[in-house]
Design a protein that fits this description.
Length: 228
Amino acid sequence: MRYESRGLRFRKALVPVLIIAGAASLLALIAGVAVAQLAAPAIAGAAREGEAGTQVAGQQGGGSESVDARGAGAGPTGSGDVDGLLPDGTTPFDDAQPGVTGLAPELLSALREAARAAEAEGITMTVTSGWRSPAYQQQLRVDAIAEYGSEAEAARWVASPEKSVHVSGEAVDVGPWDAAQWVADNGAQFGLCQVYDNEPWHFELRPNAATTGCPELYWDPSYDPRLQ
Ligand SMILES: [Zn+2]
């Protein structure tokens, strides 16, 4: 779960901004939040450059190929973070977030259908991560290697930008826990399947799941032949 909330690292940079704004007045605080949200992509970009600029830049060429491979016109839209970082509380219906709109259309519509059904049972679904730019995925990879100490161990949690199903828009991470549990229990009828045993929040579209059920789980992403 830890790498899934790495966006927080970027957002922490906003805290001083909010404190200053809050000291001025409540109105200024509200305005500060709006300004901070607009500024978030720039800050996130700056953070990436500072931390791993060379690696990210080096990967972008190869990574952009996989984005192009999704087909012209299928790219993400919206005024939110251009790399796909999502604010807390983002829902599958948030058309302003590239992290949501960049999902494969069939996956997104299945997700929305499931979200409505969950809501009818009193469970509100959020999207903690969806589509990611190659640069964002590479940053997650670099962070994971630093955190887990080796490329092999990091591969158990974070795929490379070239192989990631988040970069191709074919995977979504659902929160909070009760909603992820709901999708694990009820998602198959919508074609939504958990894929990895160690990632109970990560779902992909398996269109036949309603009739055949979901496939066997991989223990973790390093066992997934697509990521080899
Ligand atoms: Zn995922």
